[in-house]
Amino acid sequence: MSAIIGHAELDAYEACNGDPGRLPHGQAFDTGVWELLEALLLDLHLLRHRYADEAYARHVERRLVELCTDSTVVERMKAVRT
User: Fold this and answer.
1) How many CB atoms lie under 10 A from the CB of residue 78?
2) Which has the closest alpha carbon to 41: 15, 74, 66?
């Protein structure tokens, strides 16, 4: 799968506080991308609170690099608090 999460997707996610029902009227968001973004944020939450081991942390890091458009998006994902 190619990189699909960029700053625009994070902007939309943060603007509605992770609730797609709060997106401005007419603003579309790919449901699959939304689900991937939420899954990655949950993984990061688990890692932040040490509910996962190093092997899982490496897996999440690979997924972030694979799914995010660049390293600034990866760092921004890591900074989002869930």
Assistant:
1) 15
2) 74
Side chain identity, residue 7: H
CA dihedral 47, 49, 53, 59 (to 10 degrees): -10
DSSP class per residue in 30-50? -HHHHHHHHHHHHHHHHHHTT
* CA 43 to centroid of chain Cα atoms: 9
DSSP three-state, residue 81: coil
pLDDT tens by residue, 23-80: 888 788 888 999 999 999 999 999 999 999 999 999 999 999 999 999 999 999 999 9
Structure token pair of residue 33: 């991308």
To 10 degrees, the CA torsion angle through 60, 64, 65, 67?
A: 130
